[in-house]
Amino acid sequence: MTAIEKASSALIWFVATLAVIFLLAPLAITVAVSFGDSAVFSLPPPGWSTRWYERLPNTRGLAASLGTSVQIAALSTLISLVIGTLCAIALVRGEFRGREAIATFLVSPLMLPGLVVGIAMLQGFRAMGLRDAWLSLLVAHVVITMPYVVRTVLASLSLFDFTLIEAARTLGCNTAQALRRVMVPALAPAFLTSGMFAFLASMDNYPISIFFTDAWTKTLPIQMLQLVEERPDPMIAAVSTLLIVLAILAMIIGDRLVGLKKLAEF
Amino acid sequence: MNSMAGKRVIWLAVPALAFLAIFYAAPLFYLLARSFVGPSGFTFGLFSAFLADAYNWRVIGNTLRIAMLVTLVCLVVGYPVALALARARGFAQVILLTAIILPLSVGVVVKAFAWQIVLRRDGAIARLLVSTGIWDEPQRLLFTEPGLVIGAANVFLPFMILPIYSVVKLIDPRLWEAGATLGASPLYRFRKIILPLTMPGIISGMAFVFSMSVSMFVIPSLLMGDRFQTLATLTGRSFLLMRNEALGSATAVVLLVLAVSIVVGSTWLSRRIGRSA
């Protein structure tokens, strides 16, 4: 290696080290603040306590918004998994034109500004007569979660050997059995990882959900932002820490299922 | 008979397509149509009124300036990180991948709140800069433009690293060695081999970060407050606070046009480069 190559290599690793700190520090600081006993975010905190966590159950609206978020995220992910997978099968196996355009269309909600999609849906749903906040949220979140499912299941399906299903049928399975015993296990990692990240995306969504909340139906991010604006205190850090733990769990499961490198594919 | 192939399988696409057509595509077209149709047919009235206001030009300027700065910071930091990730093995690889993927699964409200803590006058960055002697006394970065750029760059950095990494890892290391064998200097090899081959990744990373920065809403709301408006925060405010749907629709359409042209433009650009490379 020449001197220039050594220097550039050192520079690359230096920037990478700083970037790791830059990316993880906000999360680490949030966790540290949540366990501090000071109300003013001083770091390191003068003492440690779990009092912000003890206040969580009694904070008005928090439990209800968590419940709404979990319901909406679980249901919308489930709906996306079912209809998204069916569509992915059609795209991989079908012989018709415009398959790539359809795939782009299904993933496009990820590429457009969330706020614009939210406003369009608000006006559109109103024109259709859909006014119920909870149902509007559910419908909107199916659109939010669909790209995650379609992207991952499509990639996984295009590697799946469909002759295996024919083989299973030759060996005496009917079509339903063949699908259940051959295709579902082969696609299980894709279902689980895409479902998990779709669920998280729904749980985290702010710019679309904000248009479909009312006094009784709020999702967790909406409630959190409202609390941040009303009185920013380490209790928000406690909620954040729980969400960070959820993300860590999802990453560990994703790593076990498909590996970190696969999760980083773009 | 093969039940999973051919033309009949197209029906499996119908539920998802119909759902998205009704609840996603139709509302978007409705938004577009309503903003171009006035009492007397087709009109640009909404937009000429919007563009006649000098304040709105400042908002557009704010939006583009912040988005360009965030994209620049992400590129400068993200490119070396993508190179490092492609070389990393074992423990270093796990740490790098974790640092990139974990923040992606944490919500933006959580991260923006974290930056509210970090950017305070007594926050981590102010104390770091004072203890290293760069600043004489602690300053507040919260509610300033540099603070917003740092916070947004943090949230969007993975979207720069991953597309670049996806092309870097495909580069055959023998190309680098071949260049060396032929006597090319490292800088020349970087300019003639690595840079052109990673250009598609750079373009898509920049397109991702730029379009997300243009349309970010939660981050400026928490890190800048109401005095500073971008197209997205103005859109949100005009619907949620001011109840001014005409203004909100105009800014929403401007944002939509910006986002779509970035996606289309970057796709076209990387295809062109892909062909000539």
Task: Write a brief structural summary.
With 266 residues, chain A is an all-alpha fold. Chain A is 74% helix and 0% strand.
**pLDDT < 50 stretches of chain B:** none
Can you tell me the residue ranges of chain A where pLDDT is under 50 for at least 5 consecutive residues? Answer: none
- What would you call the quaternary organization? heterodimer
Residue share in helices of chain A? Answer: over 70%
Distance between the first and last residues' Cα of chain A: 32 Å
So what's the overall shape of chain B? Answer: globular
Describe what this molecule looks like in 3D.
Chain A has 266 residues and is mostly helical. Chain A has one domain: MetI-like fold (Orthogonal Bundle). Chain A contains eleven helices and no strands. A two-stranded antiparallel sheet of chain B has the order 1-2. Chain B contains twelve helices and two strands, in the order αββααααααααααα. Chain B has a domain of 176 residues: Orthogonal Bundle (MetI-like fold), CATH 1.10.3720.10. In chain B, strand 1 and strand 2 form a beta hairpin. Chain B is mostly helical and 277 residues long. The model of chain B has no long low-confidence stretch (mean pLDDT 89). Classes of the chains: A mainly alpha (266), B mainly alpha (277).
